[in-house]
Prior knowledge:
Elements: H1 9-15, E1 23-26, H2 32-49, E2 50-53, E3 56-60, E4 75-79, E5 82-85, H3 91-101, E6 104-106, H4 124-138, E7 142-143, H5 147-155, E8 208-215, E9 233-240, E10 256-260, E11 269-270, E12 274-276
Parallel strand pairs: 8-11
Antiparallel strand pairs: 1-6, 2-5, 3-4, 5-12, 7-12, 8-9, 9-10
Helix pairs in contact: 2-3
Bound molecules: calcium ion.
The site of calcium ion has 7 residues, from loops.
Amino acid sequence: MKGHLKLTAALVAAMLSGTAGAQSPAAAPAPAGEQSGAIDGVIRAAAEDMTAIPAGTFVMGDTTGKGFNFEHPAHKVSVPAFRLARHDVTFAQYDVFARATGRALPEQRPGLDRGSYPVVNVNWVDAKAFVDWLNKVSGRTYRLPSEAEWEYAARAGSTTVYPWGDEFDPSKANSSVVAPGDKWGAASPVGSFPPNAFGLYDMVGNVWQWVADCNHLDYEGAPTDGSAWTTGDCMWRNIRGGSWVQDPRGLRVSLRLWEDLPRRRFQSMGFRLAESN
Ligand SMILES: [Ca+2]
């Protein structure tokens, strides 16, 4: 790993700078009829958003020499077919859950709508609670993707720095850049940029996505069957994909960071649903 950049606390702080967030007081419950219609809408939208990801083998981690020590060693992983949401979970969906369960409404950045923007200011426990609730009301078996599933799906067959090639292109994903092709100076509504080769939107950029895995500082001993790494430091969970806060280097497809599971909420961190076949 000699020659690769080392992670420092200052680097992580810089990458996530200015993104600390909060939650508002508990949401007022909606009238019962209105609430059940809204819940049905969330169940339907979640089911319709799932897309089939074919089985395959890929090399996970940094193979370009541009990555950090914790993106190594690059290793081969075989991922069974599964399903992944084409979009991140939105505020519209999460707010229905929050109202139905008396949880706090996550804060949105002032000036941005809720609705079709990806939900943010949700920690790993909040994401897990949404998944558990949705499974209860829908009878489905949604879960967070494993980190290997996430990277396999984000790459969608690519082996380059970004899913579309080795050079950053502002028209392909929402980074901190504002340029022709990226008019967004903050988060963008889900699906505002073109999908990758698997038909997935915003896998890199816009908001970070929580994955299921417990944190490890490198890939020594990582599962090679596509499953989540469920041992290790499980008070820290990994985030993938980068966000509108990062410059293009933060959107490299092999980049991984982690956050403190019960406590940390950021205005650049959300999640999406996966489901086994
Ligand atoms: Ca942008």
